[in-house]
Amino acid sequence: MKSERIEAVFLTTHNWGKAAKFFQALGFRLEFETDHNSGQLRNGDGPYLFIAEVPEGEKPESQIVLKLPDADAFQPEPIVEVVTPFEDTHWGTRDMTVRDPDGRVWRLQAPARAGK
Q1: CA-CA distance, 107 to 84, in Å (whole number)?
Q2: What is the bridge-based pairing of β-strands 81-88 and 48-53?
Q3: Could you tell me which InterPro entries the record lists for this protein (predicted)?
Q4: For the chain, how are helix, strand and coil distributed in percent, rounded to 5?
Q5: pLDDT tens string for the chain (116 positions)?
Q6: Which long-range contacts (CB under 8 A, 24 or more apart) does 81-88 make?
Q7: Can you name the residues that pair with 88 across neighbouring β-strands?
């Protein structure tokens, strides 16, 4: 089984409010905001942008999220280094991280198992 598309871009920031306003100025609309300085924005029907605030001591980072239809059916090829196996998230998906040959880490996201 292969990935279907780029599902999202996940960003961390030191200032959720400023980051959200920046992307809104570029045409993104706020879909929802959480009560812990994060939220989701979207521009058209493309991948969503999720931004989460982190403490000043953490470096802001970005990560591209690839969508998989079924985590249980995914069997990585030998060239795909699994960094963390699929785990259930608190937001209702199953996520895995893999490393490409140049050392970049990618997040693979699939729907939660039925009944979860």
Answers
A1: 9
A2: unpaired
A3: Glyas_Bleomycin-R_OHBP_Dase (IPR029068)
A4: 10, 45, 45
A5: 689 999 999 999 999 999 999 999 999 999 999 999 999 999 999 999 999 999 999 999 999 999 999 999 999 999 999 999 999 988 889 999 999 999 999 999 999 987 65
A6: 86/110, 88/112, 88/113, 88/116
A7: 94
Is residue 19 within 8 A of residue 51, CB to CB? The reply is: yes
CB 43 within 8 A of CB 85: no
**Strands 105-111 and 62-67: what pairing?**
parallel
Residue with token string 């994060």: 38
**How many residues does the structure list for the chain?**
116
pTM for this predicted structure: 0.83
